[in-house]
């Protein structure tokens, strides 16, 4: 192990299943972050709730 820089935590997006890294904007609520982006979060919502056609 040579250079061990600050390793950012990662999570898998619950919507697109991609790995995403910690962002500064999430520093307060990283524990609760489940999606890589607002868009994914919204997609998830529409999948669950947007079924009333
Ligand atoms: Zn995503």
Structure description:
- The protein is an alpha+beta fold.
- It has 1 helix and 2 strands; from the N terminus they run ββα.
- A two-stranded antiparallel sheet has the order 1-2.
- The model has no long low-confidence stretch (mean pLDDT 84).
- The structure holds zinc ion (ZN).
- Zinc ion is lined by residues 13, 15-16, 18, 35-37, 40.
Topology:
Elements: E1 10-12, E2 19-21, H1 38-49
Antiparallel strand pairs: 1-2
Bound molecules: zinc ion.
Structural class assignment:
alpha+beta
Q: pLDDT under 50 segments (min length 5)?
A: none
Q: Cα distance, first to last residue? A: 55 Å
Mean of all residue-level pLDDT scores: 84
Quaternary form: single chain
Spatial arrangement of strands, main beta sheet = 1-2
**Which ligands, by name, code or SMILES, are bound?**
zinc ion
Keywords:
53 residues, alpha+beta, 11% strand, elongated, binds zinc ion
Brief summary:
The protein is an alpha+beta fold and 53 residues long.
């Amino acid at each position: 192990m040579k250079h061990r820089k600050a390793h950012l935590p990662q999570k898998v997006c619950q919507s697109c299943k991609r790995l995403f890294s910690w962002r500064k904007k999430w520093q307060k609520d990283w524990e609760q972050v489940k999606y890589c982006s607002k868009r994914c979060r919204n997609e998830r919502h529409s999948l669950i709730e947007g079924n009333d056609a």
